[in-house]
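Example record

Each entry pairs one chain with its bound ligand, nicotinamide-adenine-dinucleotide.
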Amino acid sequence: MTARILEGKVFAQQFREDAKKKAEALKEKYGVQPGLAVIIVGENPASQVYVRNKHKSCEALGIYSEVIEMPESTTKEELLARIDALNANDKIHGILVQLPLPKQIASHESEILERIRPEKDVDGFHPVNVGRLVTGQPGLVPCTPFGCLRMLELAGIPIDGKRAVIIGRSNIVGKPMLHLLLSRNATVTICHSHTQDLPSVTREADILVAAVGRPHFVTADMVKPGATVIDVGINRIAPKKLVGDVDFEAVKEVAGAITPVPGGVGLLTVAMLMENVVRAAEMQLQA
Ligand code: NAD
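Structure tokens for the complex follow.
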């Protein structure tokens, strides 16, 4: 029997509807429209597409959106000054600096991201938000892993007491995913490039999350029959061909449920960003 396909668009639609309802409620109750500011430095074409998508998504949901375009030659001081102004701006509840940054400021990435007030850090990258996630306190959580968790919950996939294995230990995906699954009482193992006998670990997983960045890395023999497989990977193998980290065609014959690429996790990230902006506004109003 082939696996249940977890279509990203179905879950993304649900996240957007939730965000829209919550944004309307904030307007009615407090007269406040949630607002997002995205800073883009330089002219990276992929970044420009991502920023445009975020802006359109905000407009569709009644979220105020500002795109701040800064030249390629921007200095660290100029960028920090823009962040400071947005930190102090009451119309803006979420601030996002689109990565990657140009060469001359890329080495200051941590300092730049840490300048965003934690309450407005809708990417969830600030050490304060990381600490809140690890210690189980309410905060803002990175959009991609948070979207994966919410998808599992909405799909009715059991997490409590289950074995979850994550391949990849990045700060953006792997590590926050670990803490999110732990917070839902899974027994979680995180694997990485130094893990020995990876297939013997992944075959124990009821929930397997792949965030490696290598095409077709997860093969059918690495998956326990009936497992849920979440493919976070986005790998371009030809100008117009994207694939995930999972050998989808073979693994879908073994797994119980699986996300496709494209059309899976990738669609959840921007939808979850909208929820994070609304959550940020709610948290700022309650503070
Ligand atoms: P990363 O490069 O920061 O981390 C990759 C991880 O894979 C590392 O922790 C590394 O230890 C591990 N790894 C590498 N080789 C391995 C091996 N042979 N065995 C076991 N582990 C190995 O990547 P990232 O930022 O976490 O992204 C991972 C993938 O997810 C990429 O394809 C990226 O494009 C994609 N991604 C997608 C979204 C989305 O919206 N869907 C968001 C973020 C990242």
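The longest helix spans residues 8-30.
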